Amino acid sequence: MTIVERFLNYTKFDTQSSEESQTVPSTSKQLIFAEYLKDELIKEGFADVEMDEKGYIYATLKSNTKKDVPTIGFISHYDTSPDCSGANVNSRVVTKYDGGDILLSEGIVSSPKKFPELIKHMGEDLIVTDGKTLLGADDKAGIAEIVQAMCYLRDHEEIPHGDIRVAFNPDEEIGMGAHHFDVEKFGCEWAYTIDGGDLGELEYENFNAASAKVRLRGVSVHPGYAKGKMVNANRLAAEFIGLLPAEETPENTDGYQGFYHLLGIQSNIECAQLSYIIRDHDRDKFEARKLKIKECANCINSKYGEGTCEIVVSDQYYNMKEKIDPNMHVVDLVLKAMQESGVTPVVMPIRGGTDGAQLSFKGLPCPNLFAGGVNFHGPFEFVSIQVMEKAMQVIVKLCELTSHYND
User: Fold this and answer.
1) Above 90 in pLDDT, residue 40?
2) Among residues 14, 139, 163, 172, which one is catalytic?
C-alpha cells in the first residue's frame, strides 16, 4: 500500500473530537477508526499491538540489530478538529500544481492570493478537499507517515534499527490527547510527535498555557428606577475586558509574543461569564499574565464590592523547552536526519501546544516534526504528497541514526 492510499483510507473516517463531551474519547466515532487502525497494524506485522478502552493504540516494530539501541517512539493523533466537519471528506489529488487557483467545488476556490503557502508547492502533487470539510492531514498524514516508515523498515532489513514504538491517540485537538497516555507502557527513552506543518518544521518550544473563567455578578432592577441600584453585568464584562492590554491578543501578536484570548462571552444584566486562554513562551511572563488577570478581578471587586468578580485560573500545559534543553540529543538527531534526507530544517516555536509538550513533562522528551499539512482546521487544508514522502524518509533516517547512538 502506498502512503497516499493509506492516508486517503484514513480520511474516510469521521474522527472529529468534541469539547463539550465528558467521555474518553470525547466521541465514540473515534473508536471506529481506532479499531480499523489497530487491525491494520496487526495485518502489517507489528508486534505488541494493543488498544485500551480509551482508544489509545500502542505497537512495536522489533529491533533488527543485536546492538544496545535506545527504544524511541513516534506518536500521532487521529482525532480531527471540532472547528470544521470531518464527515464525508471528498478529497482529490491535484497533480503537478501549477501555482494558480484550485477550484475545489462550484464557487469554492483555493487561491494563492489568499493562501500564499500554495506557491511553495508548485510542481508538487497536492491532496485537497472539495471545500466543504477539512481534509484531516492534521494528523492522519502523521499516522500514514509513521506506519509507512515502519513498513519500509520492515521490508528493508539492511537498515539497522532498535525497537521502535508507535502510538496513536484520540482527543489531541481538545487538549486531552496526552492525559491518558501511558508513558510507562510506551517504554521509550524519547519520542517524536509527527504533528507539525510544512516541510522541515521542527518544534521544541511551545506556549505555557492556562485558562481563565471569569464570573461577574450584577444586580437587576427595573431600568426606570435603577439609579444607584442597578449593577449591569454586561457593562462589568466590557469594563473587565478593557482592563487587559488591547494589543496583547492573538490578532496582534506573533513569534514569541504571548497574549490573552477571549474565547467567549455569555452575558445578561445579572450575570456575565467570560472565558479566556492565556499564552506565553516565557515562564516568568506567563506567571505575570496570570497575575495580571487576577488583578483585573481584584480591581472590579474593589470598585463594586467583594464577590462581584470571581475568577478561576487553571494551568493547561507548559513549554516543553524546559525538558528538551537537558536532552538536546533528541533535537540533534532530527537535524542530522533532515540533512541526510535532503530537508532544510525550519526550527520554530509553536504558537500553541502539542501532546509532546505534556508528554515531555511526564518524563518523555518529545519534540514535534512536520507532517506536511497546511491550512489546518478548515476546508482549504491541503497536503503535498512529496512532503509526506519526505516526512516518512526522515522518520526512517531517525531510526537508522538512533541505531548508532551508543557507538
Assistant:
1) yes
2) 172
